[in-house]
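User: I'm new to structure prediction. If I give you an amino acid sequence, what do you actually give back? Let's try with this one:
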Amino acid sequence: MLNAGSSSQKSCLYDLGEALAEAPPAPCWEAHLEWKGAFQNARLKVKSAQGETAQEPLDIGSRSAAIRHMLNTLCQGPTRVLKDFSEVDVIGHRVVHGGRQYCESTLVTAEVKQAIGRMAMLAPSHNPANLEGIETAERLFPGRPGVAVFDTAFHSRMPQAAAIYPGPYAWFEQGIRRYGFHGINYQYCSRRAARILCRDLKSLRMVACHLGHGCSLAAIANGRSVDTTMGFTPLEGLMMARRSGSVDPGILIHLLREEGYTAERLDEVLNRESGMLGISGVSDDMREVIAAMDAGNPRARLAFDVYIHILRRHMGAMVASLGGLDALVFTAGIGENSPLVREAACRDFEFLGLRIDPQKNAQSPLDQDISTGDSAVRVVVVAAREDWEIARECWRLARASARS
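Assistant: Good question. You get back a string of structure tokens that encode the predicted 3D arrangement of the chain. For your 404 residues, that looks like this:
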């Protein structure tokens, strides 16, 4: 599994076997590569199922070279788990934007790669990286099938009322619509939460909160997305680490007309200089913002309060889209690890009968229900496992291809 980001590369190796496990097993091998700038000051961390680890700084000139170096640790060094690359049967790839064309995972073909490239205009920080990961894997694993798993696919069947923007209808005809993101993790988390609660997924009305560096919510009914906060791009919706989330479009017109902003400057401000960093002036890391807030920094306090206010506002909107709420799910870095954010987010929903257990919440237990026994709404913390969901899709498509 290859998960290529704008400044990181995550990979896992799974031994799936004939029967697919419901609960995610530990990967045989996993690696995480991060860098700044033009692949300078990169750092690679690798771990095998046997407990062998490797860490090293890298100074590599290209993404493809970085991916090759990372994957070489499958067959070389202390984390070696394969004799050679020929032991790999199928390679899964996270692709952020599938547009209107791809509503489910698909085997990689020349046509699929061309489409991913075309849709780079909708996800310029991600689709080009995803495509480069696909092409690098094709060179390293010749003849092995690749599977493209799309973040947008989970939301592709949202009702049109939730997907269409209230501009000219021609926008929709041109492909300008709400696509939604984080779908791979939502697909995993919704199924995992239902299993934790011993409930049928199709019987649950669920709001899933993916709170990390990027943040979004999804309203999930009968196992399907019926609404979400991200839209045409990952910029819409919640306040995030560096992204503004939704703002009055009139502000953008004002900045263009009165302040001399260019489109490039707007992109820089909205995607990289706003959010937690922009308001706090401290950091884009929630942990550092909370520490500054506790130390008396007023802007850090303001950043936290704005974050929670916007989060609760959008949670309420998701509940309205569902017509009620059976389960609330927290996932991703902040969602999994910040008791303060979870407690603050839930506080004003007690009118729904939602009550979290303070002691359970303080422990940040993964894959557990943290609500009280008498809570009318279950609150679950689920560890994000996009890698396992991609592996499941690879297994499903590989078996379907073998039968055809």
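You can read the tokens as a compact description of the fold. Here is one thing that stands out. The chain has two domains: 2-150, 199-381.
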